[in-house]
Amino acid sequence: MTDTLATWGGWEPAIRDDPFAHFAGARARCPVQRVRLADGHPAWVVLGYDAARRALNDPRISKDMLAALQDNGDVVAEGLPGPEFSRHMLNVDPPDHTRLRRLVSRAFVPARIAALEPAIQAIAGNLLDELHAAGPGATVDLIEGYAYPLPFRVIGELLGIPAADRPRLHAWFQVLLTGRVGDPPPEAVEASDGIVAYLRELVDSKRQSPADDLVSVLVAAEDDALTTQELLSSLFQLVVAGHDTTASLIGNAVVALLDYPGQLEALLADPGQLPAAIDELIRFTAPVPHATFRVTAEAVTLAGVQIPAREQVLVCLGAANRDPGRFPAPDILNLGRDDGPNLGFGHGIHYCLGAPLARLEARVAFEELLGRHPGLRLAVDRDALAWAHGDGLVLRGLVSLPLVLGPSQQQR
Ligand code: HEM
After folding, report:
1. What atom in ligand 1 is closest to the CA of residue 97?
2. Distances (CA, A) of 208 to 81, 200, 226, 306
3. Residues 6+ apart with CB under 8 A from 31
4. CA 1/CA 92 separation, integer angstroms
5. pLDDT tens, position by position, 276-328
6. 285 CA distance to ligand 1 middle (Å)
7. In testing the pocket of ligand 1, which one of 352, 359, 363, 396 has its CB within 8 Å of the most ligand atoms?
8. Residues 6+ apart with CB under 8 A from 375
């Protein structure tokens, strides 16, 4: 590379695992700046809170990367499973966005989400029973045994994926969602093909025998309101958006609480703080450190910096959520913080559709985990924790979280 642009993403492990000092340094230099991505493509990264909020809600900054790909080779490559499965709400602008979001929203009405609570409790309880069976002093992996399977099973319930099929799908997604940088390895292509074939079969089976689930709701709208391509893309996106994010939140939040024992103690003493605490844990631990890629449809000025038309824009939520101009003492976890909303679930028309579900899952996950195992502790040195997720852009989470849960306070 002959230019002097800073590289964004693909960081060395020390930065990738704990990127916040790096984000702060870059934000202090300029809240909006041109960078080069790890794959060599140029992009603009938005780091300041106000600029980020504005960027996420500016109709001149498009989400239609496919259209941009067609007439500009200088944008990020589409990941697996390829463009055919990319026609979902997070990749389109109005009016398509409005139509697709409205359809999928039918499964996210508050009553339907609230009705999932007993099922989520049962899933969390069963997973904790399995972990507890290893013995109170045993080392267990909270990611593999709890943080990951919990939201995966919940999204399975919501979509209507038969329980017997979930392990297969789970295994494919694990292959697909780790190590996504550069050319996909053959096992990722195989996993992607497996998921796509499975989703096609699932849709076929719901066409034959509809049930009370999201796949059936979308199948009923097929042809009239959405194409088969949009249907399959939406299902794929929902599974992806609906589990790794929440899994990362649960794992990251446990580490943050163990890093701040006083705050953990206060939470144990008053679990009623949990709903507000979850927002602060999202702000502080950035399970989704960047919003997905956008592209300027026309020139846009943000924080006094002009971004020309047809340029990629990457909004760094992790940096915006620690902007000292917006959150006093931003690098401190403060579960009692009362500074108003953060951008952890995004903002504007693409604001996370699953936020109420994610909040419910996280609340139940923590009520069950901390209620039963208030004495949980790390089983390895803090520095030995293994953080995951390839280029460090869209997801930030742990590969594993070895814990000793200690005695259970509540035996089922
Ligand atoms: C802690 C967990 C989660 C976090 C931090 C999170 C974060 C986000 C963010 C930042 C966006 C906006 C992306 C952008 O503008 O580029 C988003 C969008 C979205 N999320 Fe989530 N999410 C979480 C959980 C979920 C769950 C559980 C579901 C569904 C089951 C879900 C479904 C979606 C959907 C459908 C969109 C696209 C909305 C649109 O384009 O209109 N998310 N999420």
Report:
1. 41
2. 26, 13, 18, 53
3. 46, 47, 48, 50, 51, 302, 303, 305, 323
4. 32
5. 999 999 999 999 999 999 999 999 999 999 999 999 999 999 999 999 999 99
6. 16
7. 352
8. 405, 406, 407
